[in-house]
Amino acid sequence: MNPDDPILFEQRGPIALLTLNRASVHNALSGEDMFSAFETLFERLNEDLSLRVAVLTGSGKSFCAGGNIAEMRDRSGMFAGSAEEITLRYRQGIQRIPRAFAKLQLPIIAAINGAAIGAGNDLATMCDIRIAASNAKFAESFVKVGIVPGDGGCWLLPRTIGASMAAEMALTGDAIDAAEALRIGLVSRVVAPEALIDTALALAARIAANPPQVLRWTKQLLQQARTGTLDEALDAAGRFQGLAHHLPDHSEAIAAFFEKRPAVFGAGR
């Protein structure tokens, strides 16, 4: 692991701990190295069947403060050039992140250690589960700087907290605290800052105790449910179920149930 990497990777058994590593700019989502880091790391996670779940957090005081406001001011980086050029840069830049998340096969937990603002709020919604430190804050704040959620936030946020609350957050741009984020379902739990990573890793361990391939299929079904029909969901569930019944991990789970012992799955068997 290179300490200068935009995202740090640490493997803890079947758990991948990913840390956004740009504390000096509040882990802003900008630059080719950051965009490609998500793609490269997620490909690695998909290929490594010893990994069963990931945790994403931020270094420093912020989870992710969105885009680089200084680059917006200076019309530099991805914000330089004509409207058409900026459109292309979004497609070739930050929009690669939600596309990478859409291809990620592992369940991923956001451990939100501080501000999740703009694209940072959207980054949290790209994760399957969100846990927040009590000092975290959230804002779909694009309107406050005169732009729209260019990273897919208007697709992601309503699917997380519902259409009305998503509209309220996106159209006001107002910030909310962790308690309000819990109330509206943006996060599933709030913990003390010092307990955040341990809580996220403990939840990850509970997930990782289950069969690795079944975890990946279950995540795929959950993702498909965002846009698919009931018939499509039933077809996919039936297909995966047929395959699951022939996995060695299914036989192990049934044997462990009757023998009243913990099951041992996958590479750990």
Summarize the structure.
This protein has 269 residues and is an alpha/beta fold. The protein has helices at residues 32-47, 69-74, 83-92, 96-103, 119-126, 153-161, 163-172, 178-183, 196-208, 212-224, 230-244, 248-259; strands at residues 7-12, 15-20, 53-58, 62-64, 108-112, 115-117, 129-133, 137-139, 175-177, 189-191. Helices cover 47% and strands 16% of the residues.
Description of the structure:
The protein contains twelve helices and ten strands. The two termini are about 30 Å apart. The protein is globular, with a radius of gyration of 19 Å. The protein is an alpha/beta fold and about 270 residues long. A hairpin with a 2-residue loop joins strand 1 (about 5-10) and strand 2. Strands 1-2-3-5-7-10 form a six-stranded mixed β-sheet, with helices on both faces. The protein has a four-stranded mixed β-sheet with strand order 4-6-8-9. The model has no long low-confidence stretch (mean pLDDT about 95).
Layout of helices and strands:
Layout: E1 7-12, E2 15-20, H1 32-47, E3 53-58, E4 62-64, H2 69-74, H3 83-92, H4 96-103, E5 108-112, E6 115-117, H5 119-126, E7 129-133, E8 137-139, H6 153-161, H7 163-172, E9 175-177, H8 178-183, E10 189-191, H9 196-208, H10 212-224, H11 230-244, H12 248-259
Parallel strand pairs: 2-3, 3-5, 4-6, 5-7, 6-8, 7-10
Antiparallel strand pairs: 1-2, 8-9
Helix pairs in contact: 1-4, 5-6, 6-7, 10-11
